[in-house]
Fold:
Amino acid sequence: MLMRVRLLCIPCTLRAAYDMARKATDDEEVQRKIVLEVLRWLGEEGEKLMNVTPAMLHTYTFKTVQRISGNNDPFARLKKISNSLAMKVMPILKREIDNREGIEALKFAALGAVCGNSIDFEVEGYHVPIEEIEKALLNCLREGLTINETERLINALTKSKRILYLLDNAGEIVFDKIFIEAIVRNYPVKVIAAVKSGPILNDATIEDALEIGLQEVAEVITTGNNYIGLNMDESSEDFRRELREADVIIAKGQGYYESISEIEHILGKSVAYMLRAKCPVIAESLNVLRGSNIIKFVGKI
Structure:
């Protein structure tokens, strides 16, 4: 199903503009300018916006916040805290994985990576207080997967040599690291882990990756841009080459699901979407209840 903007995405974008503005500055006049500029843009673009992905709306909004506030990274503090809290929770997940053997351990690590996607701060109607991240993750692990195509992903891993792992949020990447460790421990594959080249919401950057030691288990690269999800036009040639050479793409989070589902036929790759469906529009497109945990595999094995 193509992930185009729905009507709900419009008020969601405006609400996000206000929330981002508050993170960027305490100056209410600057906050007002940001919100009114996004409102003006939404009104002027009108019907044109119904033919793009939701990720593009929030990317524009974030860049507007950067430009008007002068704050290049409004989520810097939250990203640091997210990484720190996730590192503290990591031993709990590792202990659960160690209590399992073989493929069952790998499956639980995959679930843990999905549950890491609970760490998000810009989804309409979704709010997990940062001090409750540990509780949210543990609840998620107990819930399991609503769409569970982990076996298809594992089957693809057994036949692959090169995996491109598209990372989503800071904090979440701690649990991605654990899953990547499990992958390379079980299969003779090379994992290329891609982060954003600059700040965009709470998405992980190279600084976040190095902070949690991701380079210990994967080759870390950047996408060449700071857009939510996948933007081929703005990506670097190095990143596009990794897309071409990958046997399997593991795409974390809602932004990558929104953008890659639009171009699966162009990429011609096997894609494993791993996310928590926090947004009602995403949940509807997957035909699941909001809050469901998803591992969806698309393509040939």
